[in-house]
Amino acid sequence: MPSMAANNLPRKNDTCNNNHTQSIEAAKGDFVTRRQRIQQQRKSLPIASVEKLLVEEVRNNNTLIVVGETGSGKTTQLPQYLFYGGFCRDGGVIGITQPRRVAAVSVAKRVAEECGVALGQKVGYAIRFDDMTSASTRMKYMTDGLLLREALLDPCLSKYSVIIVDEAHERTVHTDVLLGLLKSVQKTRSSVSKVMNGHAQNGLLMGAEKDKSFLMPCHGKKLSPLKLIIMSASLDARVFSEYFGSARAVHVQGRQYPVDILYTHQPESDYLDAALITIFQIHLEESHGDILVFLTGQEEIESVERLVHERLRQLPEGNQKLLTFPIFSSLPSEKQMKVFMPAPPGFRKVILATNIAETSVTIPGIRYVIDSGVVKARIYDADAGIESLDIVKTSKAQALQRSGRAGREGPGKCYRLYPESEFDKFEDSTTPEIKRCDLSNVILQLKALGIDDIAGFDFIDKPNRTAIIRSLESLFLLGALTEESKLTDIVGHQMARLPLEPVYSKALILSSQFNCLEEMLIVVAMLSVESIFYAPREKLEESRAALRCFSSPEGDHLTLLNVFRASNEFVVKNKLTHSKEKAEKNLRKWCKDNFINSRSLRHARDVHSQIQRNVEQMGLRITSCGDDMLVFRRCLAASFFLNAALKQPDGMYRILSSGLMVQIHPSSVLFRSKPECIIFDKLVRTNNNYIRNICRIDYLWLPELAPQCYGLQ
DNA sequence: GAGCACTGC
């Protein structure tokens, strides 16, 4: 194989440096020892002892549950075992799904290195905006959401011989939908291959009669049965095993150092104060090692940070060697990166984190964990149709995950700020997301896959019936579904194809008729990402002044449009005179000066180019309304009519479709001016019912533009 | 007068 020779040579960024001072021979030597070291590490992983068993189990069973704790090596090793076990013969691909992008990328990189191949060849990854795969890719790491999207184009997932769903215990909405889909695909593919193998040549696919929708695209193709592996870190494999018809489960040992769990004797009335006391108790009495504190949000993190600094000043100078680092998702990435820097000699780090540090971010050097026992979680009230962020108790699994963060590099200690009796009352695991979110998108996807009976779909956990009905109604009002709840011919299919929330897709489709698709692409991209503006407490005034430069009296949508256009102008100018790297660096500086989160803006620019390609492929005409913002606002009203609200005498707003009383969020540019009639993007209940991203509209537009909702009866 | 965490062709 010609590629083998190339694969044995060191690659860029590997061991060969670019200035040619190192001889090829020396580089080869380094490379060999590095390869040997990797092979040794692989062999010492707990999973290595069961390689043969696992390959046999997969060969003999179509579905297998693999339970492996942290450090077992399951994610990196199992795909390689199966590859060398012959599961990619005939060109089949092993797909491995992850709930998070970073995991898909970093694991793929590691496995490519272990295999000694360039990333994107035998081993690759695919995530939104970034596809590192090729025709020769046989082990493909990806996000579970991406595989769901792939299923829209190829409902039988025909290129995959094996699909491994990793981190299934997290039970994200994507994982749950994927499990249902895979179960169905597996059934279909078994029946197709049985037929193809000559059991019944009369064309009647009896066993799969129920799954008609999946059969059609598979029909006529010779497909091998799909091997399915569900990997979970939870100790309880029963749920998955039962769901897949008593599938076999294999347990693989983890590799974790012991963590001492300490509880309080009494319940703490104030966990922030308890956290503070515990931080200093560890700092003054325990040996070296960094501290990770789990809190619920930015506000708590910032207040604990202030309190630590205050108390530190009261200590003798020798005891002041303690540094705090906050980390939460909306923190700009430069600041997030600081948690990874080792503390200066003699100093101890305290990391104050949200649950971002539970799974998404692994910080080295942690020996002590302080667990508040609470988390801010999304709750969905299906009856009222409101999402809220509530502080709730963690589950047992979550508490275990948190304490595990202390035992990654050596024995550790976890201080739970609650009594053991309290822990015993925690739920075993966190409620699956599908039971606590809006289902419009899930339903649209399933409908596009030909699954019409949503309530009858074989979910591992059935979503709330009211939530299903509510979403069906709103999809009907948006024109995606017919009265019989079938996907509508053009609009419904177009909406399912766009990787956006249904109401945003609707806005894009409508805007091409209103001649403002250019503006809507920008606004939808900006609404799709995390908060664009960054307002640190210590620079509140400056950040407000920066926002005023962009703000529009018509509302937040047009303000976002102004930000995107200003940034784009800056980018275009910069591209002419600077290298790509320099231009990107300059854009980050521009963002910082304007109190804009550069990560969010970059994300919005990625979404923008993706959905621009999408609408072009659909044949929509991209035209601009120029300065005629009235047209644009009318288009917003025609799309977001379910989110229209009227001002009340007391300054509150009443949502016309539900009657719910809400307030404009203080971050809105219309917080003070309070127009008579508005549409909003999102409603989230925190301390109040807050609506975010507001645009001024005319009340009289509603019966004209959304007669299905506001028409005269 | 205030922002859990992820994610998508």
UniProtKB/TrEMBL annotation:
Q: Which GO terms describe its molecular function?
A: helicase activity
Q: Which InterPro entries match?
A: DEAD-box_helicase_OB_fold, DNA/RNA_helicase_DEAH_CS, HA2_WH, Helicase-assoc_dom, Helicase_ATP-bd, Helicase_C-like, P-loop_NTPase
SMART domains tied to this protein: DEXDc, HA2, HELICc
- Look up the EC number in the record and give it: 3.6.4.13
- Annotated Gene3D superfamilies: 1.20.120.1080, P-loop containing nucleotide triphosphate hydrolases
**What UniProt keywords apply to this chain's record, in alphabetical order?**
ATP-binding, Helicase, Hydrolase, Nucleotide-binding
Q: Where is the Helicase ATP-binding domain?
A: 55-253
A UniProt-annotated Pfam family: WHD_HA2
Catalytic activity from the UniProt record: ATP + H2O = ADP + phosphate + H(+)
Q: Which principal EC class is assigned to this enzyme?
A: hydrolase
Classification via PANTHER family: ATP-DEPENDENT RNA HELICASE (PTHR18934), ATP-DEPENDENT RNA HELICASE DHX33 (PTHR18934:SF118)
Please identify the protein, giving its name as recorded.
Answer: RNA helicase
Organism name: Coffea arabica
